[in-house]
User: Which sequence fits this backbone?
């Protein structure tokens, strides 16, 4: 592990914290990596090897909805089987772990509203994904490296608020944790855990929405997965 300076409350590392990269970048990194994509976006019922799009504007979709789809997955020849995903990230940087106060926790209510809107639009499958990004590099300085992530009490707290409460019954909920225990690039080496709280219930997608999805697939650039040397521990 490469550490230039490590003082309690003022750690300086060579690599960016997993809690600092933007949500949009986080999503694109997962979709662009074959291993991450197969781990995170491969729930039973989702399309196999779909085209994947990020931050798709809902403009033009039936119903005149505002906002966007964080992740849109769709089989190349079956736009009627689109999966729409709302993503919210909870961030635990060094300060948040020390103080027991995660960032972005209050935005979970917004995540519920966004997922419900996608269900109202009428996509075949709708999911709410909660990403918990955890930077434990400071806690591991001078100690045996732990991939465990959050202390039990903090993990229980997060899981107590990231629930299906308020979600439309057809919406699935998937909580995932990403741990950066060493000074390597985010999402390259670390720990991962996924908890599928509820599967999404499929609905018949309206023909008008299917036509909109088809147009999205024609005009937007799909994110193609590559292969990178990811090293993970469950």
Assistant:
């Amino acid at each position: 592990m490469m550490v230039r300076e490590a003082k309690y409350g003022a750690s300086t590392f060579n690599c960016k914290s997993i809690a600092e990269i933007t949500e949009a970048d986080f999503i694109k990194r997962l979709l662009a990596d074959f291993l991450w994509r197969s781990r995170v976006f491969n729930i039973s019922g989702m399309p196999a090897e779909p085209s994947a799009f990020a931050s798709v504007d809902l403009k033009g979709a039936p119903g005149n909805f505002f906002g966007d789809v964080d992740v849109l997955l769709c089989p190349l020849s079956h736009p009627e089987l689109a999966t729409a995903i709302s993503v919210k990230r909870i961030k635990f940087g060094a300060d948040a772990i020390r103080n027991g106060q995660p960032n972005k926790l209050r935005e979970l209510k917004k995540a519920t509203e966004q997922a419900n809107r996608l269900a109202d639009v009428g996509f075949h499958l709708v999911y709410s994904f909660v990403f918990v990004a955890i930077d434990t590099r400071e806690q591991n300085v001078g100690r045996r490296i732990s991939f465990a992530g959050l202390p039990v009490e903090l993990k229980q707290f997060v899981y107590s608020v990231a629930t299906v409460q308020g979600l439309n019954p057809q919406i699935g909920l998937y909580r995932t944790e990403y741990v950066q225990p060493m000074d390597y690039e985010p999402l390259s080496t670390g720990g991962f855990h996924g908890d599928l709280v509820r599967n999404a219930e499929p609905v018949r997608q309206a023909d008008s929405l299917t036509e909109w999805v088809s147009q999205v697939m024609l005009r937007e650039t799909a994110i193609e997965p590559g292969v990178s040397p990811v090293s993970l521990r469950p």
About this structure: The chain is about 25% helix and 25% strand. The first helix runs from residue 23 to 32. Confidence is low (pLDDT under 50) at residues 1-10. The beta strands are 3-5, 12-13, 51-57, 68-74, 83-92, 125-135, 172-180, 189-198, 231-233.
